[in-house]
Amino acid sequence: MSFSPLPRILRRRGEPGYPTFLELFFDVTYIFMLSRIAAAFVGDLTVRGAAQATILLLAAWWVWVLTAWLTDLFNPQLPIIQATVLLVMFGTLVMAIAVPQAFGEDGWLFVAAYFGIHVVRDAVLIPGTRVNRSIQARSVRVFFWFVVTAAPWAAGVFVAGWPRLVLWGFAVLVDLGSARIGWPTPRLGRTELASQIFTGTHLSERHQQIFLIALGELILTVGVGLSANDLRAPDYAACAVAFATGILLLRLYYHRVRQLLAPPGLTTVEQVRPGTATSYTHLVMVAGVLLTSAGLSLVIDQPLGRTPAAWAAVILGGSALFLLGSCLFDAVLTGRVLWSRALGIVALGALAPAGALLPPLGVLVVSNLVLLLVLAGESVAPRSRLVGVPTG
Questions:
Q1: Cα–Cα–Cα angle for 270, 196, 135, rounded to 5 degrees
Q2: Which of 129, 240, 258, 310 has its CA 20 to 30 A from that of 269?
Q3: Comparing C-alpha atoms, which of 319, 326, 294 is closest to residue 371?
């Protein structure tokens, strides 16, 4: 039996699995990206605005995920891989610039940058893995699905309003969904979902870094919002409560990640199915932080007074979405439901109608109290009481 040689650009087993400084540099772009998406949503607190922000976040996340997988599967020390990451970083910056008018006159710029990122990446990986057909097939499969979704992405540029939203929504859902089924491709089949193609240490570190980047965007939102005010007493109170929100989200995240991403958990993440699921559950958590950031900007702008229903939904929904993502993350690695956080989601939903009776700062305090109770309960309760029955 003969074996195809490993491509030179492939990361070898046993090499250091921790992210490089270049990867950290790439992540910095996402502070700008996430802040632009959050600001665009705050400017349009409607169902349509939420849908647009979701599509933009999904597209940005897909670029980040593919880049994290790129430096996980391929040697990030090679100049060709480093140059690819830098070009993807530039494309991400252009996407972020186009975000405010992505559903307006800058739609072509957003899609052009998105296309350019895919073309650059695959133009490097497909030829670079030609000496090993099985490894090359992975990149070909991803490129095939990029071609499939290119049509709705491009078509969306030439229409406006809801038609663009529907076309782009369909395209980005297919982009992310294709990975969950192994990118099935004519003649090449699909990537086996149980195969080990990731490096657990590297992928887990990358996910922790992007979560920190999301929290960085939250702190940036607080700082920018306060600097624009005259800093009256309610503003100082809003600053303190907003800072506490960031601390609670950080503590809740690392409280579970530290336990779950021990060596057994890292081994699980190396497989295709749980590896992609880990990326997508982090997407939900990052979306929760982003929604929380949007809520903080509203509170800082008007800490007192009447709370519109949309504001209460954003403030409480951010915490609920983060808890949901952490529940899904737990379920991926343990197969069980983390009931403390599930109950936290229920509590936030039950408190939503009372939001109209409180000022925006009061709604944020209530949201923080729920997060604090969840964290306190997990800190004192035995591990066996935190999880429920297996999910499947």
A1: 125
A2: 129
A3: 319
Kind plus residue range of the DSSP H or E element containing 336: strand 336-338
Contact between 103 and 164 under an 8 Å Cβ cutoff? The reply is: yes
Nearest to 115 by CA among 157, 89, 154, 81: 154
Chain position carrying tokens 């998406």: 37
The gap between the terminal CA atoms of the chain, to the nearest Å, is 39
Tell me the pLDDT of the chain (392 aa) as tens digits: 344 455 577 776 656 567 889 999 999 999 999 999 999 999 999 999 999 999 999 999 999 999 998 888 888 888 999 999 999 999 999 999 999 999 999 999 999 999 999 999 999 988 888 777 777 888 899 899 999 999 999 999 999 999 999 999 999 999 999 888 888 898 888 877 767 777 778 888 899 999 999 999 999 888 887 776 677 778 788 888 999 999 999 999 988 887 777 666 667 777 777 788 889 999 999 999 999 999 999 998 889 989 999 999 999 999 999 999 999 998 888 888 888 999 999 999 999 988 888 999 999 999 999 999 999 988 886 554 455 544 44
The secondary structure of 168-225 as a DSSP string is HHHHHHHHHHHHHTT--BTTTB---TTSB-S-HHHHHHHHHHHHHHHHHHHHHHHHHH
Domain spans of the chain, in order of start: 21-180, 200-390
Say if residues 114 and 63 touch (Cβ distance below 8 Å).
yes
